[in-house]
Description:
By secondary structure, this protein is of the alpha+beta class. It contains 8 helices and 15 strands. 47% of the residues are buried. Bound molecules: D-MYO-inositol-1-phosphate (IPD) and calcium ion (CA) (3 copies). Keywords: Hydrolase, Magnesium, Metal-binding. Its cofactor is Mg(2+). This is Inositol-1-monophosphatase.
Amino acid sequence: MTFSANLNIMMKAARKAGRSLVKDFREVENLQVSMKGAGDFVSRADVAAENILKEELMGARPTYGFLGEEGTSIAGEDPTRRWIVDPLDGTTNFLHGLPHWAISIALEHKGQIVSGVIYDPAKDEMFMAEKGEGAWMNDMRIRASGRTRMIESIYATGLPFGGRADLPETLKDLSQLLPVCAGVRRWGSAALDMAYVAAGRYDGFWERRLNAWDIAAGIVIVREAGGLIQPLNPEGDIVSDGEVICANEALFDKFSKIIRRA
Length: 262
Ligand code: IPD
Ligand code: CA
Ligand code: CA
Ligand code: CA
């Protein structure tokens, strides 16, 4: 397989940030941690990884824009292209020594996500896709699952933390979904949740109150793996709304009817 120059730049940046995060993960007790909001943490590791991604991605493509979770916002000379980056998705897992977190990098062109990389350094799994080129995990093509029966399927989501007001909605989702499926997981990284739908590990995923950097790379990876991914509000915008639903093609309708209460 041959990837475009941009995808190679993204993979190289993800690996470099990954090395920095793995080092910090081994000495997690020495990180300075602060809270941005209730239950929403940021550490020196998140900021260091964002700086590496900024240097690598902007160094290679100085005219593109850049949006990163930890405060980097650059309006590029080229207004049509923008990197959208989550330097560490799963900070809470990371700070608790749980090896389930990732780096997420997307490239947006004229409002569409055209390339995405989600890298899990602890497992050395690099999920990636480019529009029209299929989705990959390391050197393997990946596909969304082929399951067709709700009762055999499993789903991932995020649970509202720190007293968030969307708790009743999520509890309603769970009370309607749990009786008709094989299980729901909350592993703590929205980016990996989407990568796992693309790889056929989960049959679907939904979450409210996310941000562009949590979702962007996953959009193209799920689509290129043959999955369906949409904003939770069918009239909304998938990147800016921060509310997303995705599943394999066979189950999407049944699953989305439950979550959308349609
Ligand atoms: C979080 C993770 C988590 C999701 C949260 C996100 P962060 O991202 O994706 O799974 O439930 O809503 O904020 O803050 O660890 O990058
Ligand atoms: Ca965060
Ligand atoms: Ca995130
Ligand atoms: Ca993050």
